[in-house]
Amino acid sequence: MQVSVVRLRSRTLWTKGANFSNFRIPSRTLPIPYVKRLFLVYQDLGNWSSQYYNAKGCSLVSSVVGFMAYDASNLVKNITRLELNTMGQPVSVQFPGLRTRARTKCAAFGANGEVYFSGVSEGCVCYGGNEGHFSIVVKPERRKRVTDLLVGGFVVGFVLVLAAGFVGGVVVRVLKGKRIDQMERYAEEGVVLGTMWIGNSKMHCATVTRTHPVLEDASYA
Would you call the peptide bond into 90 cis, given omega within 30 degrees of 0 as the criterion? Predict the structure, then answer.
């Protein structure tokens, strides 16, 4: 863990801003409440970063760094915490030596434990609206969601296969029942039909029985 202190006048902060460590405070910045002199306390938590700050399931890929402003006009009585009014301009912090990736995000940690994510700018720079603590984090891949989709697809496919098999079995049983009923009806009627071809058409025909002639007078035979 590293701590450094910068002392400057409010007039200097207004005209020139401040550059210290990896932070840059823009010009036209005023302390709230206004004081003539102030301290800027810089912190680099190093290996202690994860002990003090949690990025809501994300992994820290850099140290948590930050700064706080204090009233330097009267240190004998008390130390008063200050806020900075940057007139809408961002405070920037650079993380040198890091490579950004698709899932890399800037994380700004609030005083009440809230975390604000934003994109990483070129040069591995993050921006904030005021003093505070910052870090570079990586959001985890959604492996669980992919696994859930695969399991869900397998279950749906298995159900569809079972449904198709059941419907096919019902259809086969219905057709088989109709065929048996038709055969039983033909058997009860005692009709045996043959088939014959006439041209290109196949037609049913009855069996031909020829009656032999009987002579009335055998003398003619």
Answer: no
Tell me the three state secondary structure of residue 125. Answer: strand
Calpha distance 91→130 (Å, rounded):
6
Q: Are strands 132-138 and 104-109 parallel, antiparallel or unpaired?
A: antiparallel
Contacts of 185 (CB under 8 A, 6+ apart): none
The H or E element containing residue 33 is none
The DSSP bridge partners found for residue 83 are 32
- Compute the distance between CA of residue 219 and CA of residue 45 in angstroms, rounded to an integer: 141
What's the whole-model pTM score?
0.60
Choose among 98, 167, 81: nearest CA to 132: 81
DSSP-derived secondary structure letter, 87 = T
Give the helix/strand (H/E) hosting 165.
helix 143-189
> What pLDDT, in 10s, does the model give residues 49-96?
888 888 777 889 899 999 999 999 877 677 889 999 999 999 999 998
